[in-house]
Design brief:
Structural class: mainly alpha
Mean pLDDT: 79
Distance between the termini: 40 Å
Radius of gyration: 26 Å
Number of strands: 6
Strand content: under 5%
Order of helices and strands: HHHEEEEEEHHHHHHHHHHHHHHHHHH
Helix content: 55-70%
Amino acid sequence: MDLLIANAHSVHWSITTMFALILVGLIVCLALEEKIHAKKSIIAGSFAAICLLLGTFTGILSFEKIVVGSHRAELPANEEIEVLVYSEDHPELCQKVGVTGDAPKADDPAQSAVDAHDDHGDQDSHHDHAPMEKHALHLDGHRLSTPVYIPGVDWSVIAIILGSSLFVDVTSKSGLFTWIAIKVTKASSGDPRRLLFFYGLMTVVFSAVLNNVTAMIIVGSLTAVSLDKLKQNKLLLGFLLIEGLLTNVGGLLTLISSVPNIIVGTAADISFVTFFVKSAPFVVVATLVTLWMGSMLFGIHRLKDRAAKDEARSLVAGFDENDGVESWGFFRFSVALLLLFIVTIATTSALPGISKLGMGFVAMTFAVVMLWRFKSDVNRFYSAVDWDLLGFFIALFMVIYVMEHALVLERIGDGLQMVMSDISAETPSAMDASLLLVGSALFSSVTDNIPLAAMFASILGNLNAPESSTLWWSVIFGANLGGNITPIGSASTLVAVTIMHKHNLPLSFAAFVKAAIPYALVQIILALVYVVLILPLIRFG
C-alpha cells in the first residue's frame, strides 16, 4: 500500500526564463496569426511539442504513474503522525515525513489523483523536500501509465465546447434560429431604429445561447438581406459594426456563452445560475447603452412619414419564416430539447449524480440525443465541428501545464502580488480589480483571449483567490470586452468585418478601431464600475 503526499519542486531561474520567453513567443505568433497564415491549432501544437520536449530534457516534468481510486485518510485533528513516502519507480528515495491532521473527510471528491506523490514534482528532488504540515494523506488506489500531458488538459472544457457545438449545429438544422430571426424582423415593421434594437437584442441572446461566431453569421446575414429589401443599404455598416460589438457583450451573459467564461468560470467553480445572476445586470445596461450610442453615431432614426412606414411594413411582410422549416415535428422537438438543455445546464450542480459528471457530460449527452435525428448521416456534423479550435485548446492546455512545472505562472503570480495589495482577499481593492480588468482587455484586443483566460485562471487558482473574489470577474469582463477594441480581438468581430467586405463596405484596421473605440471605452468603463462597486454587493451562490 502506498502512502501518497503531494510535493513541490524547485526550478533554476534560467529554465523559468527560457519557458517564459517561449510563452511570449506563443502569444506573439497568435497575435500575428493572419500574417503567418497558420491556424491556431498548428501554432499552439508546435509550441506544445517544443515545451514538452524541453520539459523532458530539463527534468521539470514528472513521469510517475498517475494514482487513481485513492481516498483521503481520516487523521486526528492537529495531531502529527509520521508516514513513509514511497515511490514505486525510485524505492531508494523513500523517506519518513511528518503530517499534521486537519480533520479531512474520507472519500473527499475534491481531492484527486493530481494530489498524488510527485505528480507536480521532479523525480530526483525528493531528498530536497522539507516535511509538510496539514496536507492530505491518500490511501490505497492504483497507478496508471498515461502520457505526461494528459493530466494537463482540462477535458471538462473540451467536452463542454464539443458537446455544445454539436448540439447547437444539429438544432439549427430544424430552422429554429432562422424562424426566430424572421419573426423578429416582422415585429420591427421595417422601422430602422426598431430593427436595430431588435437585431441587437437578438444578437445578445443568440451569442449567449449559441456562440459569438454563429450568432454573428445568422444575424449579420439576415441584416444584409433585410436592409437591402428595405432599401436601407446605407445603414448596413452601422448595423454590422454594432452587432459585432454586441456579440462580445452577449458572450458575458452565461457560463457557456464564450470560451473565456468556461475556462475561468470552471476554475473559479462558478455555477451556471450564479454566473447568469451576476453578469445579467451588466449585459442589459451595456446592451442598451451600445444600441443607443449606435443609433446616435450612425444616424439610425425612426421612420416618421406614414407612407414610408406602410412601405416598410409591406416589404418585411414578404419574409416567410416557415421557409427554413423542413419538418415541424423536428422543429418542436428541437424547441423542447433546447429548453431542457438550458434548464439542465443551469441546474447541473444541484442534480444528483449529474453534478458529479459535470456540464461536459450534459453537453455531450444532449449532442448525442440530437444526433439520433440524423443517425445515419452524422459525418456532416462531425466535419462541421471546429477541430482547429479544439486542437488549439488541447495544445494550449499542454503549454500551460508545462509552464506551471517551469514555475512561469508562479513568477507571473509573484509579479501580480507585487502590484496588487492582496489577491487572496475576499473583496480585493478597487485598484487591483481595475488593473486586472483593463490589462485583460488590452491583451485581448491584440491577440486571442483564450490563452489569456487560461493563464490567469491558473495563476489566480495558484494564488488561492477565493471563489467569490471579483478578480475572476475582472478577467472574464476584460477578456470578453477587449475583443471590441480591434477587429482581430475576437472571431465574431472578424466575421462582422468579413460580411462588410462581402457587401463592398471596406473597413480597414485603423478605421475599425476609430469606429469601435467609443463603444469599447464606454463598455469597459461600465464594467469597471460594475465589477468594483456593484458586483461585490450581489451575494448569490
